[in-house]
TrEMBL record:
It comes from Aspergillus avenaceus. Its cofactor is Mg(2+). O-methyltransferase required for two non-consecutive steps during ubiquinone biosynthesis. Catalyzes the 2 O-methylation of 3,4-dihydroxy-5-(all-trans-polyprenyl)benzoic acid into 4-hydroxy-3-methoxy-5-(all-trans-polyprenyl)benzoic acid. Also catalyzes the last step of ubiquinone biosynthesis by mediating methylation of 3-demethylubiquinone into ubiquinone. Also able to mediate the methylation of 3-demethylubiquinol into ubiquinol. Mg(2+) binds at residues 193, 196-197. InterPro entries: SAM-dependent_MTases_sf, UbiG_MeTrfase. GO terms for cellular component: extrinsic component of mitochondrial inner membrane. It is found in: Mitochondrion inner membrane. Component of a multi-subunit COQ enzyme complex, composed of at least COQ3, COQ4, COQ5, COQ6, COQ7 and COQ9. PANTHER family: METHYLTRANSFERASE, UBIQUINONE BIOSYNTHESIS O-METHYLTRANSFERASE, MITOCHONDRIAL. The gene is COQ3. Belongs to the class I-like SAM-binding methyltransferase superfamily. UbiG/COQ3 family. Keywords: Magnesium, Membrane, Metal-binding, Methyltransferase, Mitochondrion, Mitochondrion inner membrane, S-adenosyl-L-methionine, Transferase, Ubiquinone biosynthesis. The lineage of its organism: Eukaryota, Fungi, Dikarya, Ascomycota, Pezizomycotina. S-adenosyl-L-methionine binds at residues 54, 99, 133, 192. Its EC number is 2.1.1.64, 2.1.1.-, 2.1.1.114. This is Ubiquinone biosynthesis O-methyltransferase, mitochondrial.
């Protein structure tokens, strides 16, 4: 006989699935890549090669507009505690890495968290990182790999670096339960090569996903990502050439669906709409004032075989690009 608690639990899980941005096909595709994720010559090779540029791009965003840490104490008590314990530490930014996969970026960022409070600030100023991904096999690989570096392991042990196997929607629901629906927020949310994998269904869209990322961002904070434009050159490069059989192709067949790629102007529009939606509170609809102080940055990147990824200003519509939105203070 099915008991009432079991029925409630099953209903909760079904409701969560119905509102999930994660598609079963994506989960199965990424699970199949887990065992080779950290092979620098394997199917995730282009992600490994792109990683140093991510640090450069984040550093340039932070240099152009630092997250306003003056708001930290007014937001909530756990932030207050963090500020006090970090008062000598210049690396105080809280990062959330959404869709972290096997940890290529998250782990490299964790390596920049200083071990001592008096150490000088690093370019990305990471003080802590929470990295989330819905693919269980990838989170397992990420946790295993973190254990191979004692410096990273020490941050896992102190709770400064955490991997979680959950969806963005799970995290939002959790935060809404904390502190009257406005739980702790992050200074920087990163979203590298993820938005083009978000499921579009009756209750999920890339705009809704982006809005959820912005909801988790502190005023003055940055949402930073990379994705691929939906243009003819990107079709040729990212679908035809990149997914061609070895030795031409550099990513596994089925990694991308060209129709899910996002153009820079579309993404900028979603960022604006997302900021307004994220500012809506209890029936009060936030208008254009939610865009006050917003910043938008977008830079194209091109992969040159033998040389790696390079920033190429003006190439945003050719294919891959970095983008960032700063929430007004
Ligand atoms: C191309 S990988 C990028 C991984 C990582 N961000 C990196 O660049 O190294 C895409 C990741 O997005 C995750 N993903 C797919 N759909 C997602 C969703 N709806 N929400 C969050 N993550 C998702 C996958 O599990 C996978 O780890």
């Amino acid at each position: 006989m099915i008991t009432r608690p079991t029925l409630h639990k099953a209903t909760r899980i079904l409701n969560r699935r119905a509102h999930s941005s994660v598609s079963a096909d994506e989960l199965s595709h990424f699970s199949s890549l887990a065992s080779s994720w950290w092979d620098p010559m394997g199917p995730s090779r282009v992600l490994h090669l792109m990683n140093p540029l991510r640090h450069d791009f984040i550093a340039s965003c932070l240099a152009s507009g630092p997250p306003s840490t003056t708001n930290i104490t007014s937001d909530n008590t756990s932030d207050k505690h963090d500020t006090n314990s970090n008062k000598n530490n210049k690396n105080t930014l809280r990062y959330l890495d959404v869709g972290c996969g096997g940890g290529i970026f998250a782990e490299s960022l964790a390596r920049t968290i200083p071990s001592t409070p008096n150490a000088s600030a690093t370019r990305t100023q990471a003080g802590s990182i929470t990295a989330i991904d819905p693919t269980t096999a990838l989170i397992q690989i990420a946790r295993d790999h973190a254990r191979t570096d004692p410096h990273v392991t020490s941050h896992v042990q102190t709770g400064k670096f955490t991997y979680r196997n959950c969806t963005l929607e799970d995290l939002i629901a959790e935060k809404q339960q904390q502190q009257g629906g406005d739980g702790e927020k992050f200074d920087v949310v990163t979203l590298f090569e993820v938005i083009e994998h978000v499921d579009t269904n009756a209750s999920s869209s890339p705009l809704g996903f982006l809005t959820n990322c912005l909801r988790l961002l502190r005023p003055g904070g940055w949402l930073i990502g990379s994705t691929i434009a939906r243009t003819f050159p990107s079709f040729l490069v990212n679908q035809v050439i990149a997914e061609a059989p070895w030795p031409v192709g550099v990513v596994p067949r089925g990694t991308h669906e060209w129709s899910k790629f996002v153009n820079p102007d579309e993404l900028e529009g979603w960022a604006q709409e997302g900021l307004m939606r994220a500012a809506d509170k209890g029936g009060v609809v936030a208008g254009a004032q939610a865009l006050d102080g917003m910043r938008w940055v977008c830079e194209g990147v091109v992969y040159f075989p033998g040389f790696g990824w390079k920033l190429v200003p003006g190439s945003e519509n050719w294919g891959n690009y970095f983008w960032a939105v700063r929430k007004g203070v």
